[in-house]
Amino acid sequence: MDYVRTPEHRFDQLPGFDFEPQYLALSSGLRMHYIDEGSRDGEAVLLLHGQPTWSYLYRTMVPPLSAKGLRVIAPDLVGFGRSDKPTLRSSHTVRNHIGWLGELLHALDLQRVTLVAQDWGGPIGLGALVAAPDRFSRIVAANTTMHTAAPSLKDRLGWACHDTGDGRVSVAAALLDYQRMTQELPELAPSLFVQGATARDISTHELVAYDAPFPDESFCAGPRQLPLMMGLTPSSECARRNTKTLASLGAFSGSLLTAYSDGDPSTRGWDDILYGACPSARFRQRITLEGAGHFLQEDVGPAFADAIAHFVEATPSV
């Protein structure tokens, strides 16, 4: 698999990000980066980012979670952050991303995992969960979507995406505009999307950190391709996989927390859907994090970390 590797100097002296990098050699020959902080004897919390961010997104959450005695693991999806970046867009499939994450779970032999899934962390992380359910005890779903374009989603989503039943699909203009922008920008800068989807003003140094993994266009196949894979039609790979994943979550016997922000129209309604998808969960809770946009880690990171830690403490492992 052809790939590029971001030079290490691009990650020098990033504000608030002094974690020791860890790397896993995948079976494909790619190298996957992850943060691994806290007690190895603590319960594992797996923090998953989405598009177009990387583990830098969780920099204010890793220390308070590890201070609670938890083992905190924050990988960079392949194509993002310090992980290798396949140069062919066709390398970026939902199946591949689920498989790459599954290799990390297996290599670290993670058990009793609390999955924290935001943005693409939902389709990828929950896909990995249903592939190896015995490894997971809890789900924290936060500002993530699981697009299936099913007719039953009509009138349930902030940004519509559903089959109308007559061979057509109704998709919100805002969703298509986002997808279009990721393809039309001559230079893809993640910082543009991060600042545009947060409530607070991100500092210049922090914005530079989000762009650090992508020196030029040859590094951008992942962030360019994932928006095209969102599952906006029922027959797309992502929609079909999400449909199977949601059905499989019906048997999940761990605990579920939905922690969505009050300022993210792009994911509005998905907390209800994911809450309803886990009827067998032994414990289900819903909270709303106020004053935050799509990237709630940037707006209310410490409060989000506190909610996760409390959830882990209050619910049993399976």
The structure class reads alpha/beta
Average of pLDDT:
97
**Low-pLDDT segments:** none
Number of DSSP helical runs: 10
Straight-line N-to-C gap: 38 Å
Radius of gyration: 18 Å
Strand tally is 12
Helix/strand order: EEEEHEEHEHEEEHHHHHEHEH
Shape: globular
Proportion in helices: 25-40%
Could you name the CATH homologous superfamily?
Alpha/Beta hydrolase fold, catalytic domain
Largest sheet: 8 strands, mixed
CATH topology: Rossmann fold
CATH architecture descriptor name: 3-Layer(aba) Sandwich
- The largest beta-sheet arranges its strands as 2-3-5-4-7-8-11-12
In the CATH scheme, the class would be: Alpha Beta
Number of domains in the coordinates? 1
How much strand?
15-25%
Task: Tell me about this structure.
With 318 residues, this protein is of the alpha/beta class. The protein has a single domain (3-314), classed as Rossmann fold (3-Layer(aba) Sandwich), CATH 3.40.50. Helices cover 32% and strands 19% of the residues. The protein contains ten helices and twelve strands. It has an eight-stranded mixed sheet with strand order 2-3-5-4-7-8-11-12, sandwiched between helices. α2 crosses α3, α3 crosses α8 and α5 (190-196) crosses α6.
Task: Set down the secondary structure blueprint.
Blueprint: E1 3-4, E2 22-25, E3 31-38, E4 44-48, H1 62-67, E5 71-75, E6 85-86, H2 94-107, E7 113-118, H3 121-131, E8 136-142, E9 161-163, E10 169-171, H4 173-184, H5 190-196, H6 204-211, H7 221-225, H8 237-248, E11 255-261, H9 270-276, E12 283-289, H10 296-314
Parallel strand pairs: 4-5, 4-7, 7-8, 8-11, 11-12
Antiparallel strand pairs: 1-6, 2-3, 3-5, 9-10
Helix pairs in contact: 2-3, 3-8, 5-6
